[in-house]
Inverse folding.
């Protein structure tokens, strides 16, 4: 009996979309049918260079894209006729508007963290709630920061329980490619509403999590930095926490004593080991920061905003299309395809 292969389309070929498309191409149980966008600059031209079929997300953009020398195979509606599932990687708010079109064609759809939980009804982090996405028509992969928080907090919760969690997030000002267009300059911008949105967002994945988050944006583009404080139900030793983080998938410990003295060093490391685009799909945790004091666990971690949610999108495809009913098997398969290893 031939192996089942799910046909996947990607709508939005930006920071997340291009990475999702590349990751889909690495899977032996998925086929990338095409990518859709409205741009006609170098970004979508790279998709054509890679041999990806390109579609116009909005019909009226098709002529502009063709005038720019892009071979446009059709419109988003043409792409939807050919796929089993669409991964919507469009800017914040656009995905919610696209939902009606996906429903019209009876297609399953994955949305990104910029959309509200209510758009899909299921907010997803593979290690936390894979089973909730099985067979669903719509799923939302949560934001990069929420993904990092959920991965680490869920690992602690499974082993020691959590009475209360607190996190301070130092957020990158913008993605690197758009640093000429936006982002704070010579300032730090606090999110004055407490909790910041990441805490309530984490509760859409882990409903019983008692968490408060505070956040600010800073003039850097490399990634996010989190300071996490957890009051567990059962106090572990420092070695036990290290063991939990070492065992959990998609987390990696780094030592400042090895030269990893800041965000830039960990990103540079991923350049040196030839990761595509220097992407870090894991959460990076500074080992020296892991501390047990006054009944609490503390750690400092780095979240790569451009890359961390890519494995989650692949796992969401498997769950929704029922390619794999066991979340841990999907995680293992995805990680192997991407080259994630402990």
């Amino acid at each position: 009996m031939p192996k089942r292969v799910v046909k996947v389309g990607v709508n939005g070929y930006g920071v997340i979309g291009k990475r999702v498309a590349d990751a889909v191409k690495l899977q032996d149980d998925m086929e990338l049918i095409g990518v859709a966008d409205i741009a006609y600059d170098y970004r979508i031209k790279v998709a054509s260079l890679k041999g990806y079929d390109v579609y116009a997300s909005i019909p009226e953009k098709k002529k502009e894209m063709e005038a720019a020398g892009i071979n446009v195979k059709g419109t988003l509606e043409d792409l939807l006729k050919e796929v089993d599932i669409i991964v919507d990687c469009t800017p914040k708010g656009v995905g919610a508007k696209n939902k009606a079109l996906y429903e019209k064609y009876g297609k399953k759809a994955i949305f990104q963290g910029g959309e509200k939980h209510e758009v899909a009804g299921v907010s997803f982090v593979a290690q936390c709630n894979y089973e909730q996405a099985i067979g669903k028509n719509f799923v939302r992969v949560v934001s990069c920061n929420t993904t990092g928080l959920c991965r680490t907090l869920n690992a602690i919760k499974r082993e020691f329980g959590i009475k209360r969690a607190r996190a301070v997030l130092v957020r990158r000002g913008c993605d690197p490619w758009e640093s000429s267009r936006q982002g704070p300059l010579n300032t730090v911008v606090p999110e004055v509403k407490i909790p910041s949105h990441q805490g309530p967002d984490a509760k859409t994945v882990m409903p019983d999590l008692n968490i408060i988050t505070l956040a600010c944006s800073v003039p850097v583009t490399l990634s996010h930095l989190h300071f996490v404080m957890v009051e567990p139900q059962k106090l572990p030793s420092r070695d036990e926490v290290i063991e939990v983080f070492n065992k959990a998938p998609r987390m990696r410990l780094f030592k400042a004593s090895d030269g990893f003295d800041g965000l830039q060093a960990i990103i540079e490391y991923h350049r040196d080991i030839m990761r595509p685009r220097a992407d870090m799909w894991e959460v990076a945790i500074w080992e020296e920061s892991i501390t047990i004091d006054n009944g609490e666990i503390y750690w400092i971690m780095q979240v790569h905003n451009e890359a961390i949610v890519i494995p989650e999108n692949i796992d969401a495809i498997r769950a929704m299309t029922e390619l794999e009913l066991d979340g841990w098997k999907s995680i293992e398969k995805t990680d192997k395809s991407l080259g994630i290893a402990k």
